[in-house]
Automatic annotation (TrEMBL):
InterPro entries in UniProt: DIOX_N (IPR026992), IPNS-like_FE2OG_OXY (IPR044861), IPNS-like_sf (IPR027443), Iron_ascorbate_oxido_reductase (IPR050231), Oxoglu/Fe-dep_dioxygenase_dom (IPR005123)
UniProt keyword list: Dioxygenase, Iron, Metal-binding, Oxidoreductase
Protein name: Putative 2-oxoglutarate-dependent dioxygenase
Lineage, highest ranks first: Eukaryota, Fungi, Dikarya, Ascomycota, Pezizomycotina
Family: Belongs to the iron/ascorbate-dependent oxidoreductase family.
Any one biological process term the GO annotation gives: small molecule biosynthetic process
Coiled-coil stretches: none
Organism: Cyphellophora attinorum
Record GO terms (molecular function): dioxygenase activity; metal ion binding
Length: 340
């Protein structure tokens, strides 16, 4: 079965317009199919999002299964009383641990509280790359599952980064070398839970943002994720990204914008109440964020250093001032900016 967790949820309404993002096949990317890689580059220069079809490789199928098991685990994890979850709250400037719903992002002009709680579980902590912080017993009891998901998600993301590099006439490891699994980094698995819309009619799921790492691999089962339309007539309107069983949703983060000096894009996205009847039930997502390892210097690759400004697209290119940061410093700065 491709997706057992979609069997018991109301369908995404057919009459709701959705973003026309493309689908890339993991199997074809693994096979070195240049047409597929060219489409991935195109997706990263336009919408900044694409579906990744995971149905036709064992690695992809295993990843889907892990994500579904993590969704089951999320239900138990978020079902705990708030005070128990708050015992694992993240510390300022460090995203690992628990974030409660009701956060206001400091850079959000609307200053609306979000309605999403999440747990960020570090790759370094699950794989012994760095000393771990504390996590709930349910997380520790499922360490093997987190290890499996993180390893596979990282591998899939590296395959995409290699395809992008090759297609851009760079050595295949150009981006991979900045995201080494065994090096200390901000890589993590995020489990999110959005309370049903009916509980808080005004809340936003997650305010508009770009991800700040290299590449994000996302599973969700209910609608609610939106990206801004690229259709000139719809100028900036938000469109839903409909979940597709057996597919992950991939987007690039601001680090890739920095490495390519804006040639590749990190698209703004947000989470709002899911459309139709889907708004009435809890929404979960399982995410893996690949971030450049801490020692990486956040500057464009040689090839992109002198890129003309008009080639630049959405996303933040540089931190305040001209200081070149390491990825470790950059992540701390961006995390503080989130008000977290
Ligand atoms: O839950 C989703 O669909 C998106 C989550 C997201 O954008 C994030 O956690 O950065
Ligand atoms: Fe995001």
């Amino acid at each position: 079965m491709i997706s057992r967790t979609t069997d018991d949820i109301p369908p995404f309404p057919e009459d709701v317009p959705t973003a026309p993002i493309g689908t890339i096949s993991l199997a074809k990317i693994v096979d070195g199919d240049r047409t597929e890689s060219a489409q991935a580059v195109e997706a990263c220069r336009t919408h900044g999002f694409f579906y990744l079809d995971l149905t036709t490789t064992p690695l992809g199928q295993d990843l889907v299964n892990d994500a579904e098991e993590l969704q089951d685990l999320s239900k138990q994890l978020f079902d705990q009383p708030l005070k128990d979850k708050m015992a694992y709250q993240h510390t300022p400037g460090n995203l690992f641990g628990y974030k409660e719903a009701g956060t206001v992002k400091q850079t959000d002009v609307t200053l609306r509280p979000d309605s999403t709680e999440f747990f960020n579980i570090a790759k370094d902590h699950m794989h012994g790359v760095a000393e771990s912080r504390t996590y709930p017993q349910e997380v520790l009891d499922n360490k093997v599952l987190f290890q499996s998901f993180q390893k596979k998600a990282h591998e899939v993301c590296m395959t995409i980064l290699a395809a992008l590099a090759t297609q851009l006439d760079l050595p295949p490891k150009s981006f991979m070398d900045k995201n080494i699994f065994t090096e200390p980094s901000g890589d993590h698995c995020r489990l999110t839970h959005k309370i049903p819309h009916v509980t808080d009619k005004n809340a936003i799921g997650l305010p508009s943002h770009t991800d700040f790492g290299s590449i994000t691999l996302l599973f969700n089962w209910l609608g609610g994720l939106q990206i801004q339309s690229r259709d000139l007539e719809k100028a900036g309107e938000w469109e839903f990204v409909k979940p597709v069983p057996g597919h992950a949703i991939i987007n690039l983060g601001d680090a890739m914008v920095t490495f390519t000096n804006g040639y590749l894009k990190s698209a703004k996205h947000r989470v709002v109440p899911a459309p139709g009847e889907q708004a009435e039930i809890s929404r979960y997502s399982v995410v893996y964020f690949v971030r450049p390892h801490n020692a990486v210097v956040m500057e464009p690759l040689e090839k992109f250093r002198d890129l003309a400004p008009e080639m630049k697209v959405a996303g933040k290119f540089k931190p305040e001032g001209d200081k070149v940061l390491t990825a470790g410093e950059w992540m701390t700065q961006r995390t503080k900016q989130m008000g977290q």
